[in-house]
Amino acid sequence: MKKNNKHRYVKQLEGEVKSGQTSRREFLRKSVLLGMSIPVAYGLTGLSMSESVFADNAKKGGNFRVSMRVQEMSDPALFEWSYPSNVARHVIEPLVQMGNDGLARPKLLESWQASDDLKTWTLNLRQNVTWSNGDEFIADDVIFNINRWLDPKTGSSMQSQLISLTHEVDTGEKNDDGSTKMSRVAMPGAVKRIDKHTVQLTLNKADIAIPEALSSFTALIVNRNFTGDFSSNPVGTGAFELVNIEVGVSAILKRRADGLYWGGDALLDQITYVDLGDDTSVDLAAYVSDQIDYSYQVSADQVQAYETIPFIELLSAKSATTGIARMNVTQKPFDDVRVRRAVALAVDNERVLTIGYQDLGSIAENHHVSPIHPEYAPLPKLSRNIDKAKALLAQAGYPNGIDLVIDCSASPSWQTNTCLAIADQVRAAGINLRVNIMPGGSYWDVWNTTPFGLTEWNHRPLGVQVLNLAYRTGAPWNETGYANPEFDRLLDQALTILDAKERSKVVLKLEKILQDDAVMVQPFWLNSYSAVNKRVKNVVLHPSFEHDFNKVWIDA
């Protein structure tokens, strides 16, 4: 396949957008997904492209101090949250970067092309990229990383995002029930080196989410000689070097000293991540005492306070970030769908939004697909029904009610407030829900094993991407333990459909399955907030809270 080939469907899309058959936003999303460059795609729509750029008056130097939890960061393929990824992203980079506009941009890739049937993806690597140890960035690096992600021994969530590169094989072992134990591994020939700067992915079925998957915070590219502990040997292609990390205290990044960063020198001398603990209200005092310049996240109950401080700019973004109060369907009593449905029926999501997040968001529908996802399909409004909840509990063997516990993180405070609001709601149905508030680090030790817990899920650009990560049978991040062959089959089907309107017809069925099986109470979608000292320039809030400070500068 020639690198300059234009996908057949892009040519059709160009005609459709000119005639008004396709919206400009939909044209942007589809054409970029299929390999058209961002500037060309924007040019054909007439829309303005907002990009972070160096300003003429930008100044070099300074230490940018960021308040954020500093977590262990040994293996980037196993990151479970944005915190370690935000530090690492300045040292190691993804193949694809998701912009604030929801469009996938080449990063360590120069471009990509998809075949007409969306089963072959050609990745054209950026050339003249040098690792900080002097190695040249080549196809072997990409192949090494993708093979690691697909290896079940690694345990990366990337395997479920790239499931179309895998197949199931007999392990030769037996499950406890005597059935054959299967494992999912990379298909032979799925990842192929075409030449030094070209890699080809051959899928077993069409998958429209490949670029989005390669932009995930678990998809940062490590050197081909990586041995498992990034923090002890932080070799990277990025603009910064990791010079020190102390978990729970700080992480220090300095501008790369060799001057060989492919994107040109960053402006900042240093980025210092400072861990101020679970209580995000501490950030306010840290601003006043000039200890920090930026906050990773501002909780909804602090928004008004930040708005009163004249030297702070409050940043906001509409996103598909949410909190999922999910029940593990493999653990009692949540293995009984009647109990799960009773919990869901006892909650008024609109009321929880008011109490838990100060109405600074939008109501969700207990299925984890957001109205801002292109394939979202609306379902009838959920209604609280206490009588039906009580009846279901009685049928399940709990005529006098039931005692439950929900685990949640102490920070940010909206998570605790949301759990307390849910506990107050379900009491009317005879559900005595105790809220177990845990330090953030402790919660992340148990988030995918606790029987009932509230987990914050970051924004993803596609609904099918979220469903693949969180609810597919056997996925590493399937914290509900949910396993439904019909759900998996429909999800496979949805991932083959490029047109969002057509895909939404299948996604509607997926949403309804999750609602009916009641694996979660999902009260609302968050408007996301962070804050920055106004002397810091060119900072934008990414919908996924991703940090990319290469073009940030300080007007000291």
What do these coordinates show?
With 556 residues, this protein is α+β, with helices and mostly antiparallel strands. Among the domains are: 49 residues, no CATH class; 101 residues, D-Maltodextrin-Binding Protein, domain 2; 210 residues, Dipeptide-binding Protein, domain 3 (Roll). It is 28% helix and 23% strand. It contains 17 helices and 22 strands. The strands form six sheets. Strands 1, 10, 11, 12, 13, 14, 15, 18, 19 and 20 form a ten-stranded mixed β-sheet that branches. The protein starts with 7 loop residues before the first helix and ends with a strand.
Note the topology.
Layout lengths: L7 H12 L4 H10 L4 H8 L17 E5 L14 H7 L7 E3 L5 E3 L2 E6 L5 E6 L13 H12 L7 H4 L4 E9 L5 E7 L4 E5 L2 E5 L7 H4 L26 E7 L3 E6 L14 E5 L7 H7 L5 E2 L7 H5 L4 E16 L9 H9 L3 H9 L3 E3 L22 H10 L6 E8 L3 H14 L4 E8 L1 H7 L5 E6 L5 H8 L14 H10 L5 H18 L2 E2 L2 E10 L2 E2 L15 E2 L2
Helix pairs in contact: 1-2, 2-3, 10-12, 11-13, 16-17
